[in-house]
Amino acid sequence: MQHLLPHPGARSRRATPDMDRARRDLVIACVSRAFAVPQRAISRPGRGKARHVLARQAAIYLLHVVFSMPLQRLAALFRKDRTTISHACQCIEDRRDDAAFDAFLHDLELAVSALDSAVQLRTKHEQGKGAEQGPDEHPAAHDGHWPLAAGEAGQW
């Protein structure tokens, strides 16, 4: 059951309800693309199709593992019982015995963590805190410009 331990890049600072919802929406968007299911199918109440349930369980699991989000907070975010959230995490954990699914989920963990970091960095910059960071704190930061493609740069 080693996968249920917090992700090495898990955020430890105190999350706000707005941050929880933003992270839920980010994870749902990523999982929706990765599992090729509509976002509304992941967040809708009720069971739904098996592939929609699997995507919802993966989203719940990712929020728990990547962001160390407690089951009780996840239950509130998804309007589910805490035991349902626990069951979702256990189902995904059991599926990780399959090497291909484990690799797929690992890649999703990395993607979600990287996207969240980018969002947090951009938010700091927009709030005027970006100037406090040195260029070495993020490899892509260069005077507020981010490379978009080879030879192309864009302003935040």
Descriptive report:
The chain is mostly helical and 156 residues long. The protein has a single domain, classed as DnaA protein, C-terminal DNA-binding domain (Chromosomal Replication Initiator Protein Dnaa, Chain: A, Orthogonal Bundle), CATH 1.10.1750. The protein has six helices and two strands, in the order ααααααββ. It has helices at residues 17-35, 39-43, 50-66, 71-78, 82-95, 99-126, and strands at residues 145-149, 152-155. A two-stranded antiparallel sheet has the order 1-2. A hairpin with a 2-residue loop joins strand 1 and strand 2 (152-155). Helix 1 crosses helix 6 (99-126) and helix 4 (71-78) crosses helix 5. It is globular, with a radius of gyration of 17 Å. The model is unreliable at 1-12 and 133-156 (pLDDT under 50).
Essential attributes:
two-stranded antiparallel sheet, 58% helix, disordered C terminus, globular, 6% strand, Chromosomal Replication Initiator Protein Dnaa, Chain: A
Oligomer: single chain
What is the percent of helical residues? 55-70%
Question: What pattern of helices and strands is seen along the backbone?
Answer: HHHHHHEE
Helical region count? 6
Rg over CA atoms: 17 Å
Distance between the termini: 41 Å
Total strand segments: 2
Gross morphology: globular
How does CATH name the architecture?
A: Orthogonal Bundle
Lateral arrangement of strands in the main beta sheet:
1-2
For the record, the count of structural domains works out to 1
Average predicted local confidence, pLDDT? 80
